[in-house]
C-alpha cells in the first residue's frame, strides 16, 4: 500500500512524506532493538517513539514509514532526519493496538 493509503486507514496526518514509499508489512513495537531484529524492509513501524534514534533504526532496517501514535508531537530534528533518509512520518490519534488492528482489517492484498 502507499503511504497515503496507510494514512487514510489510520486517520493519520502525514508529517513527512515519502511519495515513492510502498508498505508491504507493518510492525508494532516501542523497543527499537526489537525493531532492528524483526522488522523487515518495505514496512511501516507503529510506535510511540518520537525521537531521532527511531530514524536511525528505520534507516538500518529499510523501513519506509513511521506511524507515531497518540498524536505525539514530532521534534524538528526527527522531521529533518526523516526527510533526508526518505522515511515518511505519520501521526495518528490511535493507540498502537488500535492502529495495528486497523491495518490488520485491511484485505491481504492491501497489506
* Main β sheet profile: 5 strands, mixed
Global shape: globular
Helix content: 25-40%
Strand content: 15-25%
Helix/strand/pairing category: alpha/beta
| Number of alpha- plus pi-helical segments | 5
Number of domains: 1
Q: How many beta-strand runs?
A: 5
Assigned CATH class: Alpha Beta
CATH topology grouping:
Udp-n-acetylmuramoylalanyl-d-glutamate--2,6- Diaminopimelate Ligase, Chain: A, domain 1
Radius of gyration: 12 Å
Low-confidence stretches: none
- Helix and strand succession? HEEHEHEHEH
Name given to the CATH homologous superfamily: HprK N-terminal domain-like
CATH architecture heading: 3-Layer(aba) Sandwich
> How many angstroms does the end-to-end distance come to?
6 Å
Describe the fold and architecture.
Helix 2 (about 30-40) packs parallel to helix 3 (about 50-60) and helix 3 (about 50-60) packs parallel to helix 4 (about 75-85). The protein has a 5-stranded mixed beta sheet, sandwiched between helices. The chain has a single domain (about 5-110), classed as HprK N-terminal domain-like (Udp-n-acetylmuramoylalanyl-d-glutamate--2,6- Diaminopimelate Ligase, Chain: A, domain 1, 3-Layer(aba) Sandwich), CATH 3.40.1390.20. By secondary structure, it is α/β, with parallel strands linked by helices. The longest helix has 10 residues, at about 50-60. The protein contains 5 helices and 5 strands, in the order αββαβαβαβα.
Amino acid at each position: 500500500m502507499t503511504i497515503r493509503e496507510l494514512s487514510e486507514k489510520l486517520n493519520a496526518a502525514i508529517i513527512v512524506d515519502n511519495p515513492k514509499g510502498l508498505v508491504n508489512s507493518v510492525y508494532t513495537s516501542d523497543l527499537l532493538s526489537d525493531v532492528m531484529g524483526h522488522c523487515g524492509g518495505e514496512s511501516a513501524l507503529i510506535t510511540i517513539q518520537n525521537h531521532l534514534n527511531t530514524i536511525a533504526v528505520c534507516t538500518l532496517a529499510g523501513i519506509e514509514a513511521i506511524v507515531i501514535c497518540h498524536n505525539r508531537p514530532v521534534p524538528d530534528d526527527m522531521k529533518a532526519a526523516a526527510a533526508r533518509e526518505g522515511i515518511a512520518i505519520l501521526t495518528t490519534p490511535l493507540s498502537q493496538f488500535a492502529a495495528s488492528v486497523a491495518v490488520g482489517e485491511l484485505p491481504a492484498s492491501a497489506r
